[in-house]
């Protein structure tokens, strides 16, 4: 009798474990399948131009609204001091991942123009979109292993948002420079040869123009004297607001200050200042209607992201020039090896006392930051730089297909062993 009860309890616990590990991935698959259906040629409600516009809408409106409402409501000055390890974990995940990417690239030897691309696709993970879906899917269940559904989802989204601004800075600085198109030697040789041909022509043309200028100048000096002599006066230096605008327009400051990053900073400001917090985030306050409106808009973030991601899979992997060995190495390393490094990092931080005691959602989000496929923003940077776009599409395609199995396995490990 005791054995049957023990077997029944073990069966129920195994079912509960599989439910919390597999159901989030199943929800992701259902939403992606609907996006794939809407983007198919038979339905064609969500073609490529519509997906691009929907992605811009999510990036510019829905995601900032979600970050502002969830992060601003949960954050305080005390919690910022308590959550300091979240951005540090993002930096560590990118650093260890890129070191691993260099090692894999040296061993696999991808085509030379894709060496940096291999490092980036292994080292930089998706710390925003997919973790939001995973947290939302797990926290909606009443018997989830973390907290009450409301506080679980609010805190989880706040933790993820608190790390997103660091990820955006990494993507638009380090990743942007790493994914620069390679300089082709043939183009350099061709340019040098053409420069050599043009030099002779330019010299002869310059000699003739100099003679003409000398003749005309001698005629002009005999007739009149120039009224104004121009000196090499340097332009005045910008001051005040002009200096600020010049600094903001320089480099990639605008690229770094994307709407989700700005929303994170505003959420930190409004959440940490008691007066602003009481005006917006307190129920029945004067501006609470603004919070409620933004919260409704933010609720559309996750469904739209999944529809776009599913719709992007309609074209398949594309024509990649990476080769099978490099593709397998990137996908396997990103999905199977980097989570092991993440487990070691998070457990070491916990033993050193860097993590809040007893906060399971906090620890789970840190682990998710090491478990996700390659960053979708890194794929967007390839389009921006005009280099390795097809290769990035292929890697993201294979990773998101295989991540269904890998993430289910890692979630089973996290929930069963670590919690």
What does this structure look like?
The structure is a single chain. This protein has 419 residues and is an all-alpha fold. The chain has a single domain, classed as Up-down Bundle (Na+/H+ antiporter like fold), CATH 1.20.1530. Helices cover 77% and strands 0% of the residues. It contains 18 helices and no strands. Helix 1 crosses helix 6.
Short structural summary:
This protein is mainly α and 419 residues long. It has helices spanning 2-39, 48-74, 77-82, 85-108, 115-123, 129-139, 149-178, 185-223, 241-249, 253-256, 259-272, 274-280, 288-298, 301-312, 324-351, 360-371, 376-385, 389-418. It is built from 18 helices and no strands.
Describe how the helices and strands are arranged.
Blueprint: H1 2-39, H2 48-74, H3 77-82, H4 85-108, H5 115-123, H6 129-139, H7 149-178, H8 185-223, H9 241-249, H10 253-256, H11 259-272, H12 274-280, H13 288-298, H14 301-312, H15 324-351, H16 360-371, H17 376-385, H18 389-418
InterPro entries: Mem_transp_PIN-like, PILS2/6
Membrane topology: Multi-pass membrane protein
Subcellular location: Membrane
List keywords for this structure.
419 residues; mainly alpha; Na+/H+ antiporter like fold; 18 helices; globular; transmembrane
Given as residue ranges, the uncertain stretches (5+ residues, pLDDT < 50) are 5-12, 191-231
Q: Determine the CATH topology.
A: Na+/H+ antiporter like fold
Radius of gyration: 28 Å
Which class do the helix and strand fractions yield?
mainly alpha
Query: What would you call the shape?
Result: globular
Transmembrane segments: 20-45, 57-77, 83-107, 114-138, 158-176, 261-280, 286-310, 322-349, 396-417
Keywords: Auxin signaling pathway, Membrane, Transmembrane, Transmembrane helix
Pfam families: Mem_trans (PF03547)
Region (Disordered): 188-217
């Amino acid at each position: 009798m005791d054995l049957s009860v023990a077997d029944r309890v073990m069966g129920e616990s195994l079912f509960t474990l599989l439910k919390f590990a597999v159901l989030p991935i199943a929800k992701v698959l259902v939403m992606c399948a609907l996006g794939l259906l809407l983007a198919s040629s038979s339905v064609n409600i969500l073609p490529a131009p519509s997906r691009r516009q929907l992605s811009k809408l999510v990036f510019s409106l829905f995601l900032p609204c979600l970050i502002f409402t969830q992060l601003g409501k949960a954050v305080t000055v005390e919690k910022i001091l308590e959550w300091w390890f979240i951005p540090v974990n993002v930096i560590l995940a990118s650093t260890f991942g890129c070191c691993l990417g260099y090692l894999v690239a040296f061993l696999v030897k991808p085509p030379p123009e894709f060496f940096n691309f291999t490092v980036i696709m292994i080292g930089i993970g998706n710390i925003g979109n997919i973790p939001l879906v995973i947290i939302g899917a797990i926290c909606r269940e009443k018997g989830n292993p973390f907290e009450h559904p409301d506080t679980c989802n609010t805190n989880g989204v706040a933790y993820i948002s608190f790390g997103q601004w660091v990820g955006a800075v990494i993507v638009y600085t380090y990743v942007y420079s790493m994914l620069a198109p390679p300089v082709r030697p043939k183009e350099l040789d061709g340019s040098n040869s053409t420069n050599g041909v043009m030099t002779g022509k330019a010299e002869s043309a310059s000699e003739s123009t100099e003679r003409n200028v000398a003749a005309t100048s001698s005629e002009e000096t005999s007739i009149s004297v120039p009224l104004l002599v121009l000196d090499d006066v340097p332009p005045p230096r910008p001051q005040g607001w002009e200096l600020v605008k010049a600094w903001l327009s320089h480099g990639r400051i605008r690229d770094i200050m994307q709407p989700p990053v700005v929303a994170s900073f505003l959420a930190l400001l409004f959440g940490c200042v008691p007066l602003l917090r009481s005006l917006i985030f307190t129920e029945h306050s004067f501006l609470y209607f603004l919070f409620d409106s933004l919260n409704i808009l933010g609720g559309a973030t996750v469904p739209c992201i999944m529809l776009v991601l599913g719709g992007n899979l309609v074209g398949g992997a594309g024509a990649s020039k990476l080769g099978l060995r490099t593709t397998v190495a990137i996908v396997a390393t990103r999905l199977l090896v980097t989570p092991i490094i993440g487990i070691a990092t998070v457990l070491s931080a916990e033993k050193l006392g860097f993590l809040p005691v007893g906060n399971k959602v906090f620890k789970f989000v840190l682990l998710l930051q090491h478990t996700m496929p390659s960053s979708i923003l890194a794929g967007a940077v390839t389009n921006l730089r005009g280099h390795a776009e097809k290769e990035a599409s292929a890697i993201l395609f294979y990773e998101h297909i295989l991540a269904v199995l890998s993430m289910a396995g890692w979630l089973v490990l996290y929930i069963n062993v670590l919690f």
